[in-house]
Specification:
Blueprint: H1 10-15, E1 21-26, E2 30-35, E3 38-40, E4 43-45, E5 49-51, E6 57-58, E7 67-72, H2 75-84
Antiparallel strand pairs: 1-2, 1-7, 3-4, 4-5, 5-6
């Protein structure tokens, strides 16, 4: 079942920086945690690329977005994931 897409604010997307961990919602319903590698030219690169203004995935092979950035994890949330060994990095 597809979740309602509730985007972050433009300011929140603009604040994302390398080293942040983001929660990608694959198929709009499956969480996946990614480490932001670089941010430039309106693009957030975390192994997958996302539009820095909308948080939607950019994929030239698929005309419609299949994932989006749901949130940026806090330091506490990152530590909890590390202890649970659930962080997945591309």
């Amino acid at each position: 079942m597809k979740q309602e897409h509730t985007p972050l604010t433009k300011e929140q997307y603009q604040a994302i920086k390398p080293g942040d961990v983001i929660e990608r919602m694959l198929a709009f319903c499956i969480p996946m945690y990614l480490n932001v590698q670089k941010v430039e030219d309106g693009i957030i690169d975390a192994g997958w690329t996302f539009d820095r203004n909308t948080g939607l995935e950019i994929d030239g092979d698929i005309p419609l977005s299949v994932s989006y950035i749901r949130r940026v994890l806090t330091e506490e949330q990152k530590e909890l994931l590390k202890t649970q060994k659930e962080l997945s990095y591309p």
